[in-house]
Structure formats: C-alpha cells, structure tokens
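Lab notebook: predicted structure, single chain.

Context: the supervisor wants predicted structures on file for every construct in the current expression panel, including those that have not yet been purified. This is the next one on the list. No modifications to the sequence; it matches the entry in the shared construct table.
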Amino acid sequence: MKITRKLTNIHIWLALLNVVSLIFILQIVFEVIPVWECDYTDEKIDRINSFVLDLSIGVITSTFFYYLLVYYGEWKRSKGIRRLNQWRLNTMAANMQIVIGYYVNKYNIQCKDSKFLTAEPEAFKQIGNLTRDKIEYWYRWANSDSAMNVCGSSERGFVCNYIDMVKHHADSIMESTVFSLEETELMDLVSRIDRCELVKHIVMLNRNPKLDVYLGDYGHALMLFYQYYCELSSYVFMDDIIPKESGCKLGVAFVYP
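Prediction complete. Output recorded below exactly as produced.
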C-alpha cells in the first residue's frame, strides 16, 4: 500500500535524524567523537555548537513526544477499531451462515461440515422464490447448550432479518478507514457482499412490506451469496451450526413476521 510505504519512509527519516542528532550531542557535550579542525573563532564555534546542540535536543525531544502522544495514541485507536471490525466481520459471517444453514437443511444440500463450506454452489440454484410460509426451524451453535428457536416465523421475515444484519455490519465495516487502508482485498469482498443481488433485493423487500415476490432469480442470487460467504470464511472465526437437532433445549421463540 502507498500510504503504508509513506509511513515507513517517515519512520526511517526520523530514525536517521535522531541518530545524527545523537552523534552531534555526543560530539559537542561529551567529546566522545573526535572533532575536526577549522579556522573559525572560538566565539563563532561556540555559537554553532550551541545552535546544533539545541537543534539536536529539539529533534530527539520532538520525536519522543510524537511517538508517545501521536503514534502510540493512533496505534491504540487503530487497534481498537480493528478489534471492533473483526467482531463485525465475525457477526456478519455468522448471519450469512445462519441463512445458508437454513437452506442447506431445507433442501438437503450435501455438505460435509457444519460451517457449510463444502456444499456445491450450483446446488443453491434449485431454491425457489422467497415465501411468506411459516417455518419450523431451530439451530444450535456448537458452543451453546440451547437452540435458537425461530419456529412460527415466515421464511421471508426470517431471511430478511438476517440479511438486513449482514447489510448493517457490511456498511459499518466499509465506513472504517482502518480496514480500508490496510485490507484492500477484504474491503473489496465486503463491498461485493454489500452490493450483491440478494442483499439489494432484500433491502428493497424490507422497504416495501407489501411486495410479495422476490424480483429476480432467487436461486442464482443465493449461489453468489454462498460463494461470497466461502470467501469471507478465510478472514473470520466461525463456529459450527447444528440445524434442527432433535432433543436439544429450545429457547424462547423469536418470531419474524
């Protein structure tokens, strides 16, 4: 990245200036380094030495306070933002995983893992349009004892809720300058998820509750959404989802109309 390279060059120049300043201080104050002879008067030499000494001390002092107040403060702030953005990425991927897990379970799509990363993308093309039919579905995260119960929700309400959260977190990440400058490939992926056909159409459905039909090829949109999810998996931490586990403890139902 050009900006990262610029920052690196600034640190190199600061380091060189401080080394030169330290050499002048050692030479003028402690006479550690042999001096060179010149035909200037003693008064002129004293003035030059005093000026160089003040300048050298100023460079070292300024650099110290720059790293203490500016660089460290900015590094700490960036670290906090990166931690928050990583949480947003993890949450966005989890919401995508919930939607994908629902369709993997409903259409018996062959998948060898509980993160749903080994399904055949083409299998999602069989999925028909989004409906208002009531669903009987629950899922449990592998690290939790109780299941998330969404029984009684409409399929549209369930899917729209989680896609809306994907959109929310994608927008928040894209507003972050920390990731924008340092993770161009990741930001490009988040942008593609944010602008993908499925997300755009779900946003439109959320804005138009009376619109009953998904306008577009729903199966194809889900296939692209799944492919982006698989790409995102390399940037996040994900837990396994166990859909419709028999005998598991069901929590209070969250009904999405």
